[in-house]
Amino acid sequence: MHGFEIGHCQDKWHEFGFSLLLLEQWSSDEFRQPPLSNASESKRDILFLFDGSANLVGQGQFPVVRDFLYKIIDELNVQSDGTRIAVAQYSDDVKVESRFDEHQSKPDILNLVKRMKIKTGKALNLGYALDYAQRYIFVKSAGSRIEDGVPQFLVLLVAGRSSDRVDGPASNMKQSGIVPFIFQAKNADPAELEQIVLSPAFILAAESLPKIGDLQPQIVNLLKTVHDGAPVRGEKDVVFLLDGSEGVRSGFPLLKEFVQRVVESLDVGQDRVRVAVVQYSDRTRPEFYLNSYMNQQDVVNAIRQLTLLGGPTPNTGAALEFVLRNILVSSAGSRITEGVPQLLIVVTADRSGDDVRNPSVVLKRGGAVPIGIGIGNADITEMQTISFIPDFAVAIPTFRQLGTIQQVISERVTQLTREELSRLQPVLQPPPSPGLAQKLKHGGNLGAEKEGGKINPPLNKCPPRATLSGYSGGGVPSGEGARCGLAALYPLTRLLFREEGTEGKRDVVFLIDGSQSAGPEFQHIRTFIDRLVEFLDVGFDTTRVAVIQFSDDPKVEFLLNAHSSKDEVQNAVRRLRPKGGRQINLGSALEYVSRNIFKRPLGSRIEEGVPQFLVLISSGKSDDEMDDPAVELKQFGVAPLTIARNADEEELVKISLSPEYVFSVSSFQELPGLEQKVLTPIMSLTSGHIQQLLASTQYPPPAVESDAADIVFLIDSSEGVRSEGFAHIRDFVIRIVRRLNIGPSKVRVGVVQFSNDVFPEFYLKTYRSQVPVLEAIRRLRLRGGSPLNTGKALEFVARNFFVKSAGSRIEDGVPQHLVLVLGGKSQDDVSRFAQVIRSSGIVSLGVGDRNIDRTELQTITSDPRLVFTVREFRDLPNIEERIMNSFGPSAATPAPPGVDIPSPSLPEKKKADIVFLLDGSINFRRDSFQEVLRFVSEIVDTVYEDGDSIQVGLVQYNSDPTDEFFLRDFSTKRQIIDAINKVVYKGGRHANTKVGLEHLRVNHFVPEAGSRLEQRVPQIAFVVTGGKSVEDAQHVSLALTQRGVKVFAVGVRNIDSEEVGKIASNSATAFRVGNVQELSELSEQVLETLHDAMHETLCPGVTDVARACNLDVILGFDGSRDQNVFVAQKGFESKVDAILNRISQMHRVSCSGGRSPTVRVSVVGNTPSGPVEAFDFDEYQPEMLEKFRNMRSQHPYVLTADTLKVYQNKFRQSSPDGVKETLPPGVVALRHPLGGVGWS
Q1: pTM (2 decimals)?
Q2: Where is the VWFA domain (predicted)?
């Protein structure tokens, strides 16, 4: 290759701005992605044989096990010719719930599991159960395919010692080829269980029954990766190479949790999977080696103890070299010389400070298999260069998304066996360069290079399916085949070799409604996406798919670069569950996807001209303003297709690419009829077509009302203001904002803080209503810093806030206001940019205390009447009216015609006594406890406003409580926060929440400690705990509630929601987060509930916890007058059965004290001749369905005003006064055709 040497080619490719995403296998006529084998799709027969004895009776233990079983089955490919499931319980004998031939679809078996009740029985005859399973369940007559060679698996749950011998039946089972897995719980005997399994790795021990759900990923992985009665050889050496630089500090706890979760999914052991961890920044530090720990728990403990290395920019190249020379060697525990796979998981949050190309090549040639994970500012091209093949690279926007890729990484590590790796070859070439790309795009003279005196064909003349003859992944190809072979080697560049450019490539993002409104029909949305994906040519170099849910806010389910095969995408889709939430904030969801999802680092190929599609599925009209986000999305080049149920047609047209791509349904059950209508544009529209349609779109001018204004608050946050002064400024801004008529077409607000630097908090376009603006302002904290550079801040707001891209309507003539709040003299020049602001038509208001330079402030405002000063910031309320009047008539909330509105009264002052009870045990380490204190400080700082009468106490506890301070001790917010910040971590092995709550009752919520309970001031106990109490705290919490104390409970990480619910007074005051870093995200939710609690008048001695919690539900239906709904509606009876089951299993519907309701149902229909009742109110049982079927002969059924009166009378008769307290009754109405469930 004269004139086009491969080295030169590599350098050019390196400059290429496109991402290399996939190495493909090639044959003579086509090339394909090398997928990992997917064991989950093969045939299997799995019997779940669970302990149904007295071991699981009481304390809600069996429901936990039943839910666990449900979730495992939901992960499996259940179908007649795929995975078949059988379920049985055992104690004295065996009760078969379902044989292999009885419930062969996933919905059927899940419905059965959901209704299971515990068998009971005193003895636990495990030996008998094993023998019974082999004789009567793993047989052809029961649906087993054991004679056809289909793998047979037994999943056992054992919660006690067997009453009979297990050795004989266990031996017989092994000889028959059945592979057992065991969940060891409670008092099960490990030695006894080891007689049953093929390997100790097949025993999964649950720390406790409530935590058995933690084992779900492990059992699913085992069930998917075991073949032919024996495990895949599981030997692997797994090294985590973690960026430990300063840029990782805030996300380091989430990074550790991610590593821990991956390790927990692995079969760790000396002869199985070994694990090492290395941190790096500008230096490298091994945390532990491959031979340091030989069991999973020791590895997990070591991960939990990790501390951030620290240091500047990470040198990833040097770290890769370190791993090869010091970790992947025999002396450090590596089994590289034995051919054991060497997996290296590299996680970084920044671009490398040194070269990664050469170390990556050396590493891969040395036998390592790297997987690159880039977060935030990491360079995806670097991750692809490092990874064994580019397909292994993953990019996510923040550390919070690590949880969404954990299962993908775990499965990849599990599936990368010796056999799989023998079929893959590493990619050693770096990505292509923009210099070469430009030549290819514009038909550059690449054909001018000569080889042996002959002109080589230019690359842009290569045939469509160019191949690399004999290419083996790591060698250097040569000759004409190599020239054209480069087209195959870098699939992303195939757009340069075809006239159509991006033939076969599509990026498709599904933006789906996950709110409560969509929840009842969410399964239809999920199925619809699954079927669309089935029709698409999914692959990294063809069609990529992402799914985002939205409701109150958006949630990333998986990104465009998360999955590289159709199977992976469909499996991820089938795992989708509705996120919940009351709002349908479509505007913020559209804004989120346009700014965060259609981006190159996250897998979008928008920069390469690949068509970008957004498939929106919504359940109703948007609750926020979506005009601007819809315009922005389309101007970005995205083609939206909209599907909505009972939505505003005009709203959908604004979003959609064109009106022909707007699809309305009355129920999501109608989605199958839209499949081809949605697929047609996705499969046929090119980027050129999309651009033509977008270019012809006319965007109406933005709506602007007469009271519109844009107001930016520029707040001095320097050290001179101090925390106390800043709190007064924040409260002042809040009072102003409460009086503004905020909305997208009305008043928009932005906030910026500054000191020596500038800190934008939110822009004019960020929030569209008053509530989120106020919440954001409440979260403001003093930034600190000096000197004060006001000129720099003025320049920043002029360039970055009063511009269209930030939401300013300055070009539309909307009044622009800048409110500058100063606490000192500027150290830089203010005159220049003050003039720029004035000349732009922005009206500046200056607010300052006695420390400001009034002349300087007048220079900025140019009008002495717009300068307002106070002696101290605590006096700001005195100038509030003058500030409001300075905005003119545009900003203030308008008064109704003919009504005089007096000056607004100050908000009602709050009264409360709050005692915090903080877990000071090893559940929180010292650094985590500081996060808890910070959370408490923020709660107090935000909730305690000027003039409030709030008292605070604090107790820290482990096995016993320690009083930090009492309610009577401090009288100001500043004193309280200072006292909180001085609390010293106790430590201790155990946390006894029961003792702590009892201590509060006896020693804090009493007059001697400062409690104002007798004055009916709201009393609040606020518990923050990191683990389960050593004693049950529910009764003590109940005693506090009966005394008139509202108990809030926040559980962090090692405590489940059920346990938190037992501590809290009711479900509204129970909160749980995964780690201490997420506490800050919980603040707003807690504050909202606290606010409600502080405005209650609490009556001592009255509690709502002990009330009965009963729910009566009528299921009604109607049909057309000329049809029998039982005949016309296919599957009507089974659907009613499913609905009744679902209603009967509702949990905590408006129930206090963590109680579950007693649910009674009745089925009532109304005919022209009068009402027909299938059965009266009763707890639903399957045999009651037959009574419903007897209604078939009474049709037609109608839904009229008389029908509603029938329901009303029935409710009155069912709940006589004085008998019990019944929740507001509900009616479920089923219309013809079946259109979902509605409550009234």
Answers
A1: 0.35
A2: 45-219, 237-413, 507-682, 710-883, 913-1086
